[in-house]
Amino acid sequence: MIEERQLTLIMENKPGALVRVVGLFHQRGYNIESLHVEPINNFKPYKFIEDELDTKFSEGEISRLEIKTTVDDPLMRQILRQINKLIDVIAVSGNEGTYLKGVLRDENLL
Amino acid sequence: MKLAGNDILIQSLIKEGVEYIFGYPGGASLHIYDAIFKQKEMQHILVRHEQGATHAADGYARATGKPGVVMLTSGPGATNAITGIATAFMDSIPMIVISGQVQSHLIGTDAFQETDMIGVSRPVVKHSFTVDHQSNIAKIIKEAFYIATSGRQGPVVIDVPKDLTNPVDLFEYKYPSEVNIRSYNPPIKPEDSQIDRAIEAIINSKQPVIYAGGGTISSNASKELFELNSYMNAPITNTLMGLGVYPASDKNFLGMLGMHGTYQANMAMHHADLIIAIGARFDDRITNTPEKFAPNAQIIHFDVDHSSVSKIIEADIAVFGQVKDSLQAINSKLRSRLSEINDSRLDAWHKQIAEWKEMHGLDHDLYKNNSDDGPILPQAVVQHIYHASNGNAFVTSDVGQHQMFAAQYYHFDEPRKWINSGGLGTMGFGLPAAMGVKLAYPDEEVICITGEGSIQMCIQELSTCTQYKLPIKIFNINNLALGMVKQWQDMNYDGRHSSISYEDSLPDFTKLAESYGHVGIKITKNSQLKSGIEEAMSIKDKLVFVDIYVDPNEHVYPMLVAPDGSLKDMWLGKGEKT
Question: Which of B308, B334, B360 is the last residue of a domain?
Fold first, then answer.
């Protein structure tokens, strides 16, 4: 079903990280309807990512990026997988709230 | 140990086991070249154009499985390399590209030879790094090699501002022994449940086809693939990128599939009840119209890249992970269930395929007719090359008709022997790629099958071959025109040959080769073909450029009918359709 969806990305706050995400949307012909990005300082909601990756986030190190796009299910899945391949992306979620880490673990596989 | 940035960079490359750097120096990379000068472990190969450097590194990587390394200067040096980086990216070839950059304080000022290399290359790299401090160089190199060679492989660019390689400032250097990137962790284990489902599907199939691509080669899984099919005894086809991963001489091999695939391979795919895709990505040159692709087939897809699965064709069973690991997993389970595989279950299927092959299979005996003085068939040229090289040469190619003829008529029995630009389709790839292969395997026969259009796109590298004494064999299938474009114009534009001809302005390629110190052989008659090719193959110490004038009116067949065709819709000859 084609509908507006929000993607949330947790990524390394590195130069060029944002443009890789935006560039991916352009390159693959996906549309961006809105975009918001800011550094994260409260890591509490992301503790499960820290646990999963056996790491500790510190201040200024990671950003949260929100993108709205209007797509159908298969394309949403494809976008999630393409974003997940970007090296600076630590996690990405769709509407259903499932986080994927940078490793290839997809709970809505097929 | 304290070292300057330029030495840290070069010492790190040595630590990674780099043998050859393909490159071209310039202002922004002067400090780096000074560090190259001071060491003996690696050899720098000075190409004549940066595109040649990337293709040479690419050819080296495809032949060896090790990453190719490229050294560029800023600005035009960097942008000249883009085509070669994109070529490697499309075919998932590991490559490290180091580009000099203007000094840090000049970035963004439109300085002399400044280009935003990270920005320009971004869509065609797996990842890229900008060096921000000398003390990070070693870590960046380590990460770059790890990223380029793991998961789905690909090129990585490292942009290095000139001031950070200056020989004056010294920094502590220790090459990291481990690499850990928290947002990147590609090795994944195939899931047992998916393997079990795949085995059920295999046991129950009556018309299976294995469709194996370049990912099977990247993963060095040809043995595992062969083992799998020793249990399955299924017909198997390879993509253009996968040729050689399964022995072409095996009775179950159908030949290549897709746009110019064999009749039997395309028919088998279309009529299959089970397609086992292994390290292949359902490219548009394979599927034809996706909605009409293999209407009755269940799809099992083995791939290391999540995003390749169900991108074009929905997979029913997906096995993620390195293809080698996944095949080992399925093989070990299948071994204990061999009694469930009925040996005669595929008899009717094999019989049907044999009939297809008999009806419209390729004629591999064209080379036997070499007595008359009629036009030379390009297909026969490849067949002669195949026999004269005993079928075990490394063969690089460019792009167009000659590439398809090479893929159709040179039977590759081993992986990494067929080196061509499949995804991007880059003319100019063949000669520099052959240089990379020859450097990696100096004692092996390395052949470049090219055309008079493609060879001129990187022909400057003939000079590099002289400098480094690279006795490559170049077979120029010369049809006096851009043959594949001409074929499309014949078939789709009523023969209006728009901008495909340069007949009166071609160089005498043999004289051109001779002017670089190479040997030139010209073949214009069918009766000269066999002896000319054999003469070329007998010359071991010199590059031989064989210019072969072929029938300019030949087309490549089969050819899928497009648009709106399925895999069973093929042109089989001029005006002859399935």
Answer: B360
SS3 call for A84 = helix
Domain that holds residue B468: 366-573
Q: Structure tokens of B68?
A: 């190719």
What's the CA gap between B4 and A104, in Å, rounded?
Answer: 38
Secondary structure of residue B96 in the 3-state scheme: strand
The predicted pLDDT at position B478 comes to 98
Q: Which of B39, B43, B103, B113 is catalytic?
A: B113
A 10 A CB-CB count for B493 gives: 12
- What average pLDDT does the segment B346-362 reach? 98
CB contact under 8 A, A85 and B188: no
Residues 6+ apart with CB under 8 A from B387: B367
Contact B468, B396 (CB under 8 A): no
And the tokens for B382?
A: 């490849």
Q: B148 with B200, same domain?
A: no
Whether residues A104 and B186 touch (CB distance < 8 A) is answered with yes
ipTM: 0.93
CB B157 within 8 A of CB B117: yes
- Phi, psi for residue B349 in degrees, rounded to 5: -65, -45
Q: What's the CA dihedral at A24, A26, A28, A32 to 10 degrees?
A: 90
Q: Are residues B398 and B331 in the same domain?
A: no
Q: What's the average model confidence in pLDDT over B83-88?
A: 98
- Residue B26 near residue B4, CB atoms below 8 Å: no
